[in-house]
Records
---
Amino acid sequence: MKLLCYTFLLFLFLSQFIYSQLDSTSIITEDILDDILIEPDEESDSEELVDILDELIRNPIDINKADVFQLSKLPKMDAASAQRIVDHRNKFGNFFSTNELFSISDIDKALVQSILPFVKVTGSIEGTEQNARDLEDPKLFYGKSKLNIRSRFINDLQNRKGFINNKFEGSKLKSYNRLIYNYDNFFQAGFLAEKDPGEVSYSDFSSFHIQIKNFDLINSAIAGDYVLEFGQGLALWSPFGFSKGADAIFPVKKKPRYLRPYTSAAEYRFFRGAAARILIDNFNLTAFYSNNSFDASIDFVTQEITSISQTGYHRFGSELNKKSASKSKIIGGVIDYKYDGLLNIGVIYYNASFNNRFQASSIYDLSGDNFNYLSTYYEINFSKINLFGEASYDGTSVASINGIQFSANRELMFTSALRNYPRNYQNLYGFGFSERSGRINNEIGIYSGVRWKIPYGILNLYYDIFKFPYRTNENSLSSEGDELLLDFVSKPFSKFEVRLRYKYENKEISRAINAEEKIIRRLRQIARTEFVYNLAKILRLRTRIEYNNFFIKDANIKENGFLVFQDFRYLRNNIVLNGRIIFFQTDSFSSAVYEYENDLFGVMPNLAMYGKGIRWYLILKYKPIQFLSLSAKYSETYKPNVTSLSSGDNEIIGNVDNRVSLQIDVTF
């Protein structure tokens, strides 16, 4: 740790003589996620969602080659705006610069600004011919080669109970190391090693891949770790995805990225083996094979899988026993057809087999060790109308989602989607649009959303009504609910922005009343006001006031939560300084107020603020020279009225929880 500190001070000194302008891409990425996401009602680390944008930054979309479906993958992009970009290119020829997008009068300039980090333009020589020329010229080869190394270290300054009683076998340090090499848009290789606090090995989890792209008919071929994203996520998707958010349009329709390397530290639901995607005229053929181990609890007597672990923790005996306890073998293929940016249809088939049988705890739970999936998906563009959907068959039942997006003009857009996920549909490798964080069984719902740009700002409004026909992990009986979100962003002055948000959530939950389990209604309402002041190009201030009301009429329970924070961001040349101080007070954890935090590059935690206390953090991002970025964060939570924080093995004796984080990014 001392060596890292001395290195940091050395570069700080050298920067007085030579420095590089800090890349603003990470700042734009944070702002986009702020606009898209709303804080879920559970603590999480959204590293995976940041990784989606990070992958787009490493592999930007070529606006001189992309069709409507490819352009629609860009953040906040809709099919109608994507079609306008294609029409402009067809009419006037290839773009010479990404800034030419500003000249398209029918596209909102704020949208163009948000997609610039994720797009590029190329010249006329393409593919294997260009790659052969580059190999003959070392200067061109090295000029198109890019190596990114990221190392991250996080350490709690307080000792948790698991370390005090020596239950955890490893050190407190959390480490993350990733290396990715790219050669233009042709080749990529990567390796990742990660260790959680309490684990012994610094490569407790490791991931690797080699990828060849755009080689003759091969669009992409990967050996190692990868994920597959097709259709609307009912049959095949990565372990994470966007859910309902502040943008009422963007999250509803999935934007598949097909076959891509796995570069996340999440230790579940990825494939390890080989896969290839081949382009033949308008057809895309994808074949894949995976043989991978996963964490699971195994019944000692029957040798059946009782549950799958997704925590990734291997700190002591029982957790170590779950590590790689079973194996999965996946083999399958996808046929995908596209026509002129108007039609995209596809068929998915794959077989999943496991070393151990799944033990069902109820009639509708996953049972057996061999499963077959067949799915078909579609997307159709009719001028201002976009239709999309998928139906997936697991051998027992069919899960489906069908939706429409209508763009009246660039100011007004509407979407609606109907999802029907039967109680006996089971899929371990899907992540669909749903109320319960991507789960695609035992849910029926209708979602409707509007995004309307009015003279005074941008209004996002959605209403979602849903029902769980069978019991869930949270409720012992069938239940239902509805949810409404109103989000309004206004910029009355050039340097001042106001954000207003109201969320209404009315759900049925299980509750013990007079020693009897009953289904009762729980009403949660959240009101937020936020002010953003851009005092100058180098300084931005943000103030948030949020009130949370939690009400259960039948149990005579009413709780309140309150949060206020002041945030600042200072940007000058090679330095970004972020800070936030948060004051919060809630009646209990049930009325907790959640807040996404800025963090190191690639990390975005969502934390629950409950009880009474203060939290603050300070982040320094520093780029002393062109190829090097340094980031550091100190955070602290203080609760004056308690004697311990958290619980179980993570309990801290005392009322302060603080940690320090350091990250080094090297790019050649």
---
Amino acid sequence: MSQPLRSNGVQGEVVLAARNIAKSYGNVHALKGVNFDIHRGQVTTLFGENGAGKSTLMKILSGVVQPSSGEIILDGSPISFTSSTHAREHGISIIHQELSLAPNLSVRDNIFMGREIITGGMVDFAEEERQTRELLEELEEDIDPLTRVEDLRLGQQQIVEIARALSVNSRILIMDEPTSALSATEVEVLFKVIHDLTSRGVSIVYISHHLEEALQITNHAVVLRDGTMTAYAERKDIDLEWIVRNMVGDNFDLGSPPDGHQFGQVALSIDNLSVPGPSGAAYNAVDRLSLKVRAGEVVCIYGLMGAGRTELLECVAGRLRSSGGQVLLEGRDVGGLSIAGRIESGLVLVPEDRQRDGLVQTMTVGTNLSLASIGAFTKGLFTSGRRERELVNDAIRRVHVKTDGGEASIGSLSGGNQQKVVIGKMLATQPKVILLDEPSRGIDIGAKAEVFKLLAERAKQGLAVVYSTSEVNECLSIAHRIIVMHRGRISAEFSSDVTKEKIMAASGEAMVAH
């Protein structure tokens, strides 16, 4: 019988070990000889910037991709996973950062897709529905199992993804950014579930860009940088400073409000705007809201889940219809314009869900970057390849996309670099006003600083920037003004010297003691 593995200096059985794992994609070396241990009944948190190799390593451990070299040892014996199904058969499941649900199918069908419950030669839909209800109740989410996934908000879709992974009864569960779209309440419920799983001996690998959040549940922490493991520590030796220092170095901050310039004329004027709530709701998602943003000004919109932030930005960008009010761009009413018309006029949106709304997965990095600016290098039926390449290369450089070039597949990029592509695509249109809905979703702390620095620089050049966030720390980074929303209305307005406590109190959120 094989002896349980012991990792260096760490007490506890190692269920799965990765030894000298390397993975290359063409000239890009995603992993360079990584060693990684997963301990029975404990949470190992993996930190690292976008492109550090975190998701690649997890895909290898879960059988999604195969390593270029190296060895995986499960229960003391070498093993080579040929597919994710093969890994699942050995008790290893992964919750991917990017949702892999079928939007046109029900919640029930998504959870049991590919492993349907068969009774008497027929699919037992009633039993699948019963088990789905149990899983959703465990996650404290009131979702009808027969609801189509496309009719759920993003956070609820994330819950369905988690429920599907839990339904497999895995002994090793890899969670890649599981809370990126969850509310604070949903995160608390997930942490209760994680505690219950580990108490039953399930091993958790947890990846998150929410550093303080991850510290609440971790037993061990590993930091990757540029495809190599740069640091390891147990929880008692870890704090926020240790994580940030090992990820991005000693000198780091999210920036400060851009100064040294005067605001211009009003670029965006929102007057008495209302947006209907969900179908059948008796309330407005946005209720008679007014806001003015000047050229060169950075405005942050803060609020909890359901405050109306997303509905406000999507209505201003033309994605949702209003039930009253006006949207003016430099004094011109754009209410009658399509999304494309608003982009052409200089009003653009970086959406919250980059996979569904921001990228075309079958296209290259370059084509995604140039898609919204096609008119700049097209004349009649002809396009200028040279001008398009210049635009793409300039966008890659400006937003610091880590890629093998414009011809690389968009799917080859990490989640954070994909988000940079979406931002770069909209900035390439030379907008007058840019709206960003949760721009740091799925972006690590280093990439987040790059994005905010970029936005601050563009504000100095006269761009009006409006970004929404549910992260109070992000309110205090580059915003000149902070707007707090609660139940569809503005509940407070602050300058950049406000405290976190005042912002959270205005949103209706109680401070959590640490």
